[in-house]
Request: fold
Amino acid sequence: MKKIYALNASPRKGWNCDQILDCFIQGVKETSGEIEIEKVQLYDLDYKGCRSCFACQLKKTEQGHCLFRDGATDLIRGIKSGDGLVFAAPVYYFDVPSQMRAILERLFYPGDADHEIPVTAIYTMNQPEEVANRVFKKHLDDIAFFFRQEFKTDPEQLYVYNTLHWRHPERYNFPMEWYEEKLKVHEAQFPADQNAAYQAGIRFAQKIVSRL
Ligand SMILES: Cc1cc2nc3c(=O)[nH]c(=O)nc-3n(C[C@H](O)[C@H](O)[C@H](O)COP(=O)(O)O)c2cc1C
Reply:
């Protein structure tokens, strides 16, 4: 049996990232019964980012692992010794949210994983593709760079644009026309994004199973 971790890096359960992640997971499940999937809601855990303690770099300690003990320790160890990682993160201010960044710091800093760990990175964002390409996709590419370096893997990246902020627009401080336009685009586009995540889940499972 192989083990993969699926992280929802949004604080909102059941929203864009969570839904897209579930489509990916469905693709994995329907492709192979040989893959155990641990889905983790990052915002249910209590942890911080790298403390720069350098314990992971000491000659006398176990290499390749963050040794700091808090609510993310087991998850980080599990990912590093596991067979695959997928995460769905909302874009916050052109980058991933702080909870995801904290996990990445602690995954990357101890150095090389001792085996290739396939990764799929899913990013959901409210802005359209044109803005993402022009303004901030380079930040997300930097994350892929570190996965190549530390996980020896070329991550597949999926981008979900024009997501919905909320329902019940009458409760919020935005013009109704803005919401209606977003809703129209979202309803046309989101099902295709869900299908793309499902297909990515199938590819991911095939990659993992081919190594059994
Ligand atoms: C604090 C904050 C910052 C955000 N910054 C951006 C941004 O820079 N670019 C963007 O396209 N969307 C931004 N968004 C919108 C979210 O990325 C988008 O709604 C995302 O799909 C939310 O995912 P969720 O529904 O799973 O929580 C931001 C949202 C919040 C709450």
